[in-house]
């Protein structure tokens, strides 16, 4: 078997292969559903209903998609420049920490000033968190996969320490949780009485901004050039190391916004279960989106929908909600295969 | 048995009607070829003419869509890499396939003995290798490590490897590309001895001089088809060239140079090693209106010199002087700002970004100028306009400015690089292996542009492993050996053999062993 590159993917192929990937995902997942003793069609229908079958379901899916858009963008930006940021989880938590530090009463000002201030501070915190690995990479050639991945654990333990110590809520009955952010620091809800909050709007706006950066600006051009061929970029006079550092700052900042938006928009305080792995799922989201910033929005909603839908389904169909993780993981694999088939033609000898 | 030229000699290899398609591309179109006992057949053709595909089919790496192969009267099963070896066909690739950390003997014996045999049978093997080496002029000490051998010696090991396995047909793919002129002569002598002993040789090349020197028959491929077949003794060089190119050969007129002021100077520069030797105390000055050619065998420091001038390798000591002023910090950016136009050795790895568009690639050296960007935003209209300009001016064959560069041929890619490097008429030009892998038409085009740059007063440095190219283009020649430069010589001052001696490190001062 050999792969031959295609000159260009036909429009039909760009639609058909991803569609085929979804069908393959459903087929593979249905095997597991059947193993669990349920009917695949019923289960998939329940997942769909749970994700998008009602206003409540839909809003829940979008709420869940919000942090994934941020972490997905963070990963997409970094991966585009071949900076393998596996540490979105850590940057998310550090953004959340900064939100709690500034948002629980330490700074008093009207929300029109306070919210942007916290947002920027959170972004800076996340950016600084990735600055270290970026500098180690550019200066000493230290592999950023290792440093960013390990930083996740360090940061999580650091947050745990904070929640047992300086940030611990004195009224929290001993639970490791922070105080709640004050009203002026809270993001407004988009619909009264529902959970969807202004963070979703920020996420959409971020996706558009990132898209503009990648497509229209000098920085985006440099990032793509460095990602596609760093040696050629260097030869052409593009400051490769500086571009990697800038990419790191942008990526870390975006991931930190996920933490900010979860605390200020949804949860209200910081706990150790703020993120069920949004930083890691961001990698899946970015890959599904083929690193396209606008695609990240669609991919995040898709992944969030499967998780939310599977939760609802497991309550009524007696199939464990773990099926959601299998579906997301399978969809990533089939999508990677579909992308490859879009670019290459398979030849059997 | 030296009736090598006689048409009655037995046919040892017959390829009939070989056709191979890759999608819409027909790489081999009904090619037939016969090889007789005791003859050298040259397979002549430009890059992309289908030579390599044909040999890959012979060796079972590809399966032909149509046609069959017969070796020594028996059909060769398609798609089986072992079949050709078993039938007594040996191949010497352009890129050697030797294990560096093993001895010559071990490399040759490797794979010839069953894995459960307890000994390598070294003594026996050593004797056999010695005898083969003596018979065919392939002197190489069996117990030396491959790392310690020169390129020419490694090639001899490859040939010995094939002979050790009782090959009766030897295929050599561009064997002289890595050799000095003396080593080339030695190789030709070996080939003569081999055919005299009844072996048959297919010699793949795109160099006419060599083909004429070594072959009995020439088979010319062009665009995947058999363009013609001639007896070497009856064909003129011009005829072969025209068969190969399919028309008139473009010829560049090069007038006398008008040397001007020194525009670029290296003074006692040393660098770390890069892709071969490091530079040791290299001094070089380039004058405006003059092409300086730098010859040398691959890996003698050319890569380091090119990287140094391009700005991607830092000097350990020494000075760079541009337009009479000493430059401090040197980098790709500084090189560009100082008016250098640079053509890198490797188009794919260094020259272009394959997955980006033509427009994105041509602005990569100038995207920060107000012409292409403002307030951090790129002006894509200006970029496409510039790309279209280059496409027109340099006759680049590509669908549009939005096409991905990966899809372009080597020649067209090189034209884009020229267009980018020559934008703004740089007065110092570094062209590193500027025509490697290009077809004759593209070579002539690149040469014409370099001569044009010289004639408008630019100082041009051409680094090439192709001595013909150096001799065609250069007003002045320097030779690099183990990171050091020879004294410059004027055009025509030294013969090919004398240049070859310099390339091999036998300077006139050191008393060359072959000096007359």
UniProtKB/TrEMBL annotation, chain A:
* Entry annotated with the keyword Transmembrane: yes
Q: Which UniProt keywords apply?
A: Cell membrane, Membrane, Transmembrane, Transmembrane helix
Localisation per UniProt entry:
Cell membrane
Query: Entry's Pfam families?
Result: BPD_transp_2 (PF02653)
How is this protein situated with respect to the membrane? Multi-pass membrane protein
- According to UniProt, the name of this protein is ABC transporter permease
Looking at the UniProt entry, the stretches that span the membrane are 12-36, 56-79, 91-109, 115-136, 145-163, 196-214, 277-310, 322-342
Q: Which PANTHER family match?
A: ABC TRANSPORTER, PERMEASE PROTEIN, GUANOSINE ABC TRANSPORTER PERMEASE PROTEIN NUPP
* A GO term, aspect molecular function: transmembrane transporter activity
Q: Name one GO cellular component term.
A: plasma membrane
Q: What is its main location?
A: membrane
Q: Does the keyword Transport apply?
A: no
Automatic annotation (TrEMBL), chain B:
List the membrane topology term(s): Peripheral membrane protein
Q: Where is the ABC transporter domain?
A: 13-248, 264-507
Pfam families per record? ABC_tran
A single GO cellular-component term on record: plasma membrane
Q: Which GO terms describe its molecular function?
A: ATP binding; ATP hydrolysis activity
**Localization of this protein:** Cell membrane
**Endpoints of the signal sequence:** none
Q: Which InterPro entries match?
A: AAA+_ATPase (IPR003593), ABC_carbohydrate_import_ATPase (IPR050107), ABC_transporter-like_ATP-bd (IPR003439), ABC_transporter-like_CS (IPR017871), P-loop_NTPase (IPR027417)
Per its UniProt record, what SMART domains does this chain match?
Answer: AAA (SM00382)
- Source organism's superkingdom? Bacteria
Q: Which UniProt keywords apply?
A: ATP-binding, Cell membrane, Membrane, Nucleotide-binding, Repeat, Sugar transport, Translocase, Transport
Q: Which family does it belong to?
A: Belongs to the ABC transporter superfamily.
Q: What's this protein's name?
A: Sugar ABC transporter ATP-binding protein
Q: Which organism is it from?
A: Hoeflea olei
């Amino acid at each position: 078997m050999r792969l031959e590159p295609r000159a260009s993917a036909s429009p039909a192929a760009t639609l058909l292969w991803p569609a085929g990937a979804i069908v393959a995902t459903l087929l593979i997942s249905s095997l597991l559903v059947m193993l669990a003793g349920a009917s695949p069609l019923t289960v998939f229908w329940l997942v769909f209903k749970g994700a998008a079958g009602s206003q409540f379901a839909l809003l829940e899916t979008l709420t869940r998609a919000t942090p994934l858009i941020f972490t997905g963008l963070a990963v997409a930006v970094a991966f585009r420049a071949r900076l393998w940021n596996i540490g979105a989880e850590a940057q998310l938590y550090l953004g959340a920490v900064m939100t709690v530090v500034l948002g629980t009463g330490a700074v008093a000002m009207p929300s029109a000033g306070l919210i942007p201030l916290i947002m920027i501070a959170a972004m800076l915190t996340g950016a600084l968190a990735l600055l270290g690995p970026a500098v180690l990479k550019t200066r000493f050639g230290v592999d950023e996969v290792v440093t960013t991945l390990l930083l996740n654990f360090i940061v999580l333990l650091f947050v745990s320490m904070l929640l047992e110590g300086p940030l611990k809520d004195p009224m929290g009955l001993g639970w490791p949780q922070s105080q709640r952010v004050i009203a002026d620091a809270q993001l407004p809800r988009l619909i009264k009485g529902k959970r969807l909050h202004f963070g979703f709007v920020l996420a959409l706006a971020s996706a558009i901004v990132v898209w503009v950066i990648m497509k229209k600006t000098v920085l985006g051009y440099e990032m793509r050039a460095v990602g596609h061929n760093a040696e050629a970029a260097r030869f052409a006079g593009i400051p490769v190391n500086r571009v990697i550092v800038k990419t790191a700052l942008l990526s870390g900042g975006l991931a930190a916004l996920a933490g900010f938006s979860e605390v200020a928009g949804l949860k209200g305080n910081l706990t150790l279960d703020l993120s069920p792995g949004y930083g890691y799922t961001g990698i899946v989201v970015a890959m599904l989106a083929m690193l396209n910033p606008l695609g990240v929005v669609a991919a995040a909603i898709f992944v969030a929908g499967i998780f939310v839908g599977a939760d609802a389904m497991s309550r009524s169909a007696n199939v464990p909600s773990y099926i959601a993780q299998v579906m997301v993981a399978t969809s990533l694999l089939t999508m990677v295969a579909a992308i490859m088939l879009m670019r290459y033609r398979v030849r059997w000898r | 048995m030296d009736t090598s030229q006689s048409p009655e000699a037995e046919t040892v290899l017959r390829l009939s009607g070989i056709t191979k398609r890759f999608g819409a591309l027909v790489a081999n179109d009904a090619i037939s070829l016969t090889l007789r006992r005791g003859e050298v057949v040259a397979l002549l053709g430009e890059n992309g003419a289908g030579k390599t595909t044909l040999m890959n089919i012979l060796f079972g790496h590809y399966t032909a869509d149509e046609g069959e192969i017969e070796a020594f009267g028996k059909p060769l099963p398609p798609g089986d890499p072992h079949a050709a070896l078993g039938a007594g066909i040996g191949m010497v690739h352009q890129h050697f396939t030797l294990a560096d950390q093993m001895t010559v003997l071990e490399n040759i014996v490797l794979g010839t003995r069953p894995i459960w045999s307890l000994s390598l049978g070294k003594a026996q093997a050593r004797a056999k290798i010695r005898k083969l080496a003596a018979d065919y002029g392939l002197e190489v000490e069996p117990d030396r490590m491959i790392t310690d051998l020169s390129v020419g010696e490694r090639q001899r090991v490859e040939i010995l490897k094939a002979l050790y396995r009782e090959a009766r047909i030897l295929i050599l793919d561009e064997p002289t590309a890595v050799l000095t002129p003396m080593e080339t002569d030695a190789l030709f002598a070996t080939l003569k001895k081999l055919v005299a002993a009844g072996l048959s040789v297919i010699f793949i090349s795109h160099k006419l001089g060599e083909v004429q020197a070594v072959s009995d028959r020439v088979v010319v491929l062009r665009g995947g088809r058999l363009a013609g077949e001639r007896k070497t003794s009856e064909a003129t060089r011009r005829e072969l060239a025209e068969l190969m190119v399919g028309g008139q050969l473009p010829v560049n007129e090069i007038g006398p140079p008008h040397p001007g002021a020194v525009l670029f100077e290296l003074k006692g520069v040393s660098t770390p090693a890069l892709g071969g030797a490091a530079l040791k105390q290299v001094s070089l000055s380039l004058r405006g209106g003059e092409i300086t050619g730098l010859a040398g065998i691959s890996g003698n420091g050319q890569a380091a010199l090119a990287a140094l001038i391009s700005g991607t390798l830092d000097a350990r000591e020494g000075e760079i002087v541009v337009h009479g002023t000493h430059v401090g910090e040197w980098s790709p950016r500084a090189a560009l700002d100082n008016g250098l136009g640079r053509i890198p050795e490797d188009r794919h790895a260094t020259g272009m970004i394959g997955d980006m568009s033509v427009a994105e690639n041509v602005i990569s050296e100038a995207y920060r100028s107000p012409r292409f960007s403002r307030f951090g935003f790129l002006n894509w209209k200006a970029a496409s306009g510039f790309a279209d300009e280059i496409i027109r001016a340099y006759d680049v064959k590509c669908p549009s400015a939005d096409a991905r560069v990966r899809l372009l041929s080597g020649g067209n890619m090189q034209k884009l690089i020229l267009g980018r490097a020559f934008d703004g008429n740089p007065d110092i030009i570094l062209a590193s292996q500027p025509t490697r892998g290009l077809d004759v038409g593209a070579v002539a085009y690149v040469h014409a542009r370099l001569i044009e740059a010289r004639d408008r007063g630019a100082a041009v440095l051409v680094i090439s492993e192709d001595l013909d190219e150096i001799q065609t283009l250069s007003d002045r020649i320097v030779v690099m050996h183990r990171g050091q430069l020879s004294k410059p010589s004027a055009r025509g001052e030294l013969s090919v053999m004398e240049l070859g001696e310099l390339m091999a490190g036998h300077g006139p001062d050191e008393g060359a062993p072959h000096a007359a």
